[in-house]
Structures are given as structure tokens and as C-alpha cells.
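Hi P.,

Sorry for the delay on this. The queue was packed all week, but I finally got your sequence through. Input first:
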Amino acid sequence: MLSTYRYPNFPYVRPPEQSGSTPQRYPVVVVGAGPVGLAAAIELAQSGVPVVVLDDDDTVSVGSRGVCYAKRTLEILDRIGIGTPCVDKGVSWNVGRTFFRKEEVYNFNLQPQADHKRPGMINLQQYYLEQYEVQRAQALSNLDLRFKSKVIAVDSDGQGATLQVETPDGIYTLETDWLIVADGARSSIRRMMGLEIDGKVFMDRFLIADVVMKADFPTERWFWFDPPFHPGQSVLLHRQADNVFRIDFQLGWQADPEAEKKPENVIPRIKAMLGETHEFDLEWVSVYTFQCRRMNSFTHGRVLFVGDAAHQVSPFGARGANSGIQDTDNLCWKLKLVIEGKAPSSLLDSYSSERVFAADENLLNSTRSTDFITPKSKTSLIFRNAVLTLARDHAFARTLVNSGRLSVPCVLTDSPLNTPDTAMFAGNMVPGASMDDAPMQADGTDCWLLDRMGNRFVALVYVGDPAAVDVATARAFKSLADWPIPVEVVLISPQAGIAPEKLQALVDSRNRFAERYDARSGTTYLIRPDQHVAARWRDFDASALSAALARATANLQ
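Then the structure:
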């Protein structure tokens, strides 16, 4: 029981399969009602795909667990309807500071650019995120959220999967065309299917202490190497909602996990860090080890793995929940097109290839962070301490400091869904990149570019004046909405004007779009439903756009 949060208990409802109803086959079943499974279910349901979610518990996660949610993840949460409550409740931050012994040696800013809707990062206890997701899920009529429902057997074939589900009313059978597995690092589904997950287990232990206190620490990430209050080890401090501070203490591999969790051992560590003047209460304590590993493939026929069930990283860099939610963002639009018969099932191969690439990037960064934070040889320790000593005065050394390279969007540069550039562009919005946000105006009202994208294919066309677009061109733009896979054209202009044929037009009110997308008159971007750039050109060309759309949906003949 926490002093700052009251755990909800979600009701168990007897499923129709156990009430004499005719057994049904569902388009999609998601196993796991954590942050990742719920994100997948919500995105599919709000796009019109019926979903059943199975979870063996009846509440949200115990303890803060996942804490940091990155800007890219917040933008995805916006699209599933819960970004604002998360940001409103969470603690926003952009600055991180690194200390060596008593001195600050390095700091960074996650968002050096102005004019983005969301901060670089928020800190929010995982139970709040799950609570907001459950509330959103319960508001969707085509999402069936089933608690106290444990999958005890799974049989998959080329047409789907059959599950045996255990409930308080006994065991029943459930059939689905597609199974999304989001049941965590110890995935029982993965084990039942005999699938391997390969990687490295790190020989170290860390203590998590959630502490309630009123303190004047700024809303920043603070990381200490070899501090005087915890010599020879590392410590991480984050502020969360409700005046809860998350403190991670490195313990070493020989530490006894059960003994370290006892208050008589935890409290002296915190007092040594904070001093005697700060009053605090322990909220939650845990000891963890970590590993960096992944499955060879995230797709196995019609069984699709996401989040920790597919890949695991150390907690340094906030790459766990963030990468899992980005998995679902990549997967769901593709699965919807396949279910609707608008794309071949081979499109889902790109889910695995793109997110395996992202997982490898996360694993590489996470492993490097862990090796720097927990050097396993005297030589490595000497090197690390030399880097930290030099970092205070020398810029080259700061690039080597690694207290956790924080989660950033993966740029899918080698994706087979990209159309290569045929013209020169400056900036970061290459095919495969996730979109940068920009402030806009629509009908004289301030708005944000990403909020106008939705979960669909969009062609962004930069024009000098939307009112100057002739009717024939406007009708050609509008006709893209009638393609088998619709594409909505959005005009972006440096000035206001009423576009013909009721085309959507946005004003680049602070010139940020032109800057960030290297846009000039005629510049066109094709944007995927997950807001990654699929292609770009210097001039609008319907035939080139059609070919790029086919490529982005695996519809090439």
C-alpha cells in the first residue's frame, strides 16, 4: 500500500464464452495489460479493429517501475488520447546533470530547440500511465478488457492462434486471427511457444527507493559517479509526481537483495545522501538486476511480440517502456492494413526488421551505458574516472561520459519501406525519421503539426499561398483520399489563405516547418501513419507519390 496512490481494482466480468454464448473468433487478442499491451489495444480499437485484452491481474503495476517517458512516446500517447493527462500529472524535464564525486562535470539538454509541444522527457510513475490507459480503453466500445484472465496454453498456426484462458469461473477457449504478445520480460507465451531470447545478463544489483519528501531539488536528472555519500558506486535521482523521488543506488553483485530492501538498511543510505535536514518517508523499495537481450524475430506467423516480451534493456537511458510503446506504434497501422486486405501480410515483416533494428540500437547504447557505469575491470575503472575528471574542462571528454544515453527516436534509414531521395535536402527529416513537431495555425487558431497528422497517410505540400492553388490542382490533391489506401493532402504555407475544395491548410506561423523540413514551394513529404517520413520530393508528383505509397505498404508487384 502506498501513501500517495490508491490502487484500483478492476472488476472481473464473466466472459461470454463461459456464459453459454456461441464461441467467437476475434480479429486481435492482446495478452498483457501493461503500458505496451494497452497502447497496442487502444490504437487498434480507435482505428476500428475489435480487440480483446487478457491480463492475469486486476490492478495496475505495483511500484513506480517505469518512470521516464520521452518526447517521442508522449507524441504517441497524444494519438491514443492520454498524452495530456500524463504530462499534466508528470514532472517535465529537459536537463540532466552528471557528477563525479563532489563536482558537476557534465550536463545536457534534451530539447535545445524551441517550439515543440512536448518536453524532452517526463517522469511519471508507471501505475499512473496504466491507469490512464485503462480509462481510455474502457471508453472504447470495441475493446474488451478482461482482467483475471490468465493464458495457460497457446496453439498457433498459419490462420491464427487458439488460447486456453483460466478465469475465476474456470478455463475456456479463445480463438484469434492475430495474437499480440505483451506479457513482459518473463513472457509465458514466449516460453509456451519454445522461443528463445538471447543476450547478456549484467552482474550487478541496484536498489530502487521511492521516497516521499518535500525538497528543493530542481526537476532535472542527477547522476553521481563515486559520490562521497555512496563511495565507489553510482546513484541516480529523479523527481516524480506527488513529491515522490526515485533514487537508484548501485549495490554490487554480492549484495543480498532481501537484506538490502529492509528499511534499516535503506534509510541510512538515503540519510547519507540527503543529510539529516530532509524528512522523508519510504514509499516503495525494490532490488533489480538487468539484462540486454532480444528475440531473433518479433513475428512468428500470426503471433507478434512487442515490448519486454521481445527485447529487454538495462534501465539506464529510459529505453524500456519507450521502445515498447514505439513497437506498437510501428505495428498497429501495418496490422490494420493487413486485416483490411489493403496490404499483404509481408508488410508485417517490416515490423520485425524495423523494430529489431531499433532494439539493436537500444541494446548497443544500453550496454555501453552499463559498461561505463559499472566497469568490470581495473583498467575500465581507470579509463572511466579519467574521462569524468577531464569532462569538466574539456569538450571531447564530455562526449565519452555515459550515464545512460537517453531514449531518442530510432531513424529507420535502411527500411525497405522508404523511398530514397532524388533531390538534395538539408536537416534531419530523412526518409525513415520520425517527424519533428512545429507550431502552426489553422483558421487563425494556434495548433501543432503532429496533432494534425492523425493515424493515416498524409502528404504535406508546402505552398506559398494556399489561396493561389488552382481548382484543378486542388481536386487532384483531394482525389488522393479516394485511393485504395487513402492519402490526405495537407497544405502548409507561410501565410494564411483559404484553399479551394476545402483542403486542409496550416500556416507555418513561426517558420519552423520550413526550417526543420528544408521546405520551399512545391516540397512534398509522404508521412506514414506512425509519423515517420516515407518519402520526400522537391515538387508534387502524383505518380511518384503513388509508387512511394505502394512501397511503404509492401504493395510493390
